[in-house]
Amino acid sequence: MNQRSATGAQAAALAQRALGIARDPAFQLGMRDLSGVSLGIAAWALVTGVAMVKSGMSVWMALFMSFVVYAGSAQLAVLPLMIAGAPLWVVWFTAFCVNLRFVILSSMWRSYFAHLARRHRLALSYFSGDVIFVAFFKRYPGGERSPEQLPYFWGAAATNWTVWQAFSVAGIFLADQVPLSWGLGFAGVLALLGVLYSMLTDRTTWSATGVAAAVAVAAFALPLKLNILAAIAAAVAVGLMMENTERRLREWRAGPAKLRAPDPARGERNPVLPLDDEEPRP
C-alpha cells in the first residue's frame, strides 16, 4: 500500500512538473521554431512509413518500429538490408553506425543537461533529433546553462515527435496510395538545409560545413553510411581547431597581460597575473 502511494505521489509530481514545463513561454518558443520545418519533417516521415510497409513489413511491426526506434535515417538505411535478407547483426550494425553521430551530438548536449537525473537524460536522448539539435544550438549557441533551455527543448521535441509519428503512421496505413517515386523524403533534406543555412554566421561555421560536405562526398563509398560519421567528426575537429586558433589570435592581438603588484596579505612575493574572476583589491 505504501509503495503504491509512493508511486502515485511520484507520478503526480512528474505530471505537475510536465505541466509547468508546458506552460513555460520557452516551450511555446520551441514549438514555433520547429513548426517552421514541420512540413519537411512530415514529408520525410510519410515516405519512411510508406517504405516500411512496402519493404514487406507488417503494419503492426511498422508501427512498433516507428514508435520504438524513432530514427528516420536508421530506419531507411536498414530497410534495403531487411528486404535483401541480410543477417541480423548486419542490420543492427548498420543502424548503429548511422546513429553514431548522436554520440558526438550528445557530448555537446552535456553542457546544458548534464545536471539532470539519469532517467530525465534518457528521456531527452530518445526525443532528441537532428532538427532539434540545430534549432536548439541556433537559439542557445554559447554553451551556458539557463532555466528556459529545458522547456525549449521539450517544446521542440513535442512538435517534432508529434509531426513525425502522425505522418509516419499515415504513411503506414496509406502505403498503397503514396508511391515512393514522389521523392517526398527529399523535402526533409531541404528543411534541414534551410535551418543549417541560418546557422552559418561566421568563418568557423562555414569552414566546418564545407569540410563536412567534402568529407561526406569523398567517403561516400564507405559501407554502412560511415561517411556521415566521418563528415561529422571532421567538421567538429575543424570547428574546434579554428575556434582555438581564433582565440589565440585575439589574445596575441591584445598583447601581453599586465601584471599587478604582489599582495603581502596573500603571501605573494612576486608580480602576479590577475585572473578574470579575481576580486579587485581595496
TrEMBL record:
Domain of life: Bacteria
Residue ranges, annotated region (Disordered): 253-282
Protein localization: Cell membrane
A Gene Ontology cellular-component term: plasma membrane
Alphabetical UniProt keywords: Cell membrane, Membrane, Transmembrane, Transmembrane helix, Transport
Annotated Basic and acidic residues bias: 260-269
InterPro entries referenced in this protein's UniProt entry, alphabetically: Brnchd-chn_aa_trnsp_permease
Any coiled-coil regions, as ranges: none
Membrane disposition: Multi-pass membrane protein
Principal subcellular localization: membrane
Annotated TM spans: 36-53, 89-109, 121-140, 152-175, 182-200, 212-240
GO BP annotations, alphabetical order: L-valine transmembrane transport
A UniProt-annotated Pfam family: AzlC
PANTHER family registered for this protein in UniProt: INNER MEMBRANE PROTEIN YGAZ
Family of this protein: Belongs to the AzlC family.
Name of the protein: AzlC family ABC transporter permease
